[in-house]
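Example 3.2
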Amino acid sequence: MITLVACDPDIITDFILPSNLSAIDINGTFFTYTGLRMDRAIPPTFQVTKATRMEFPALEGQSVSLAVLEFPPGAVNPPHTHPRASELLFVVIGSLEVTIIDTKNVPYTQILIAGDMFIFPKGLVHLQYNSNHKEAAVAISAFGSASAGTVSVPSSVFGTGIDDIILAKAFKTDVDTVRKIKAGLTGP
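Structure, written as tokens:
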């Protein structure tokens, strides 16, 4: 039997240098990332600010990454999955309604408040919703991969060019409804 696992490889050095740097170029700034500072107001729409190996090269080979999730009142992080890592969400400000859906299509929903954590197992569809229509919410997500990946369910289903007739049949609806859904989606 062959088993395939999608995860970060173990490294045999303390850290991995990007090809454009040498050991002489390395100092404390290589291990520092300042892109998650929240020195501004909460944005008007849901926003994720990531610190993955793409934004923070020192994470290469370290099997960790973070994201700050900012939810204005009533905002939702649409159903999505992370194919290469579990997500540990920590609510910093406000409250969030979170849901995971297991492989038997059973939803598990919980209301979290500041100080609460919730685990989203690797690969399971999940979402977060700020059901408070007056106050913003902020959460930090930690991932067990330097590149957890994100597959947005709405974008991957309705934004990838699958024929409208096929989608209408798959969702037992009509083509006009599929086109309305597509028109309402923003980028991935």
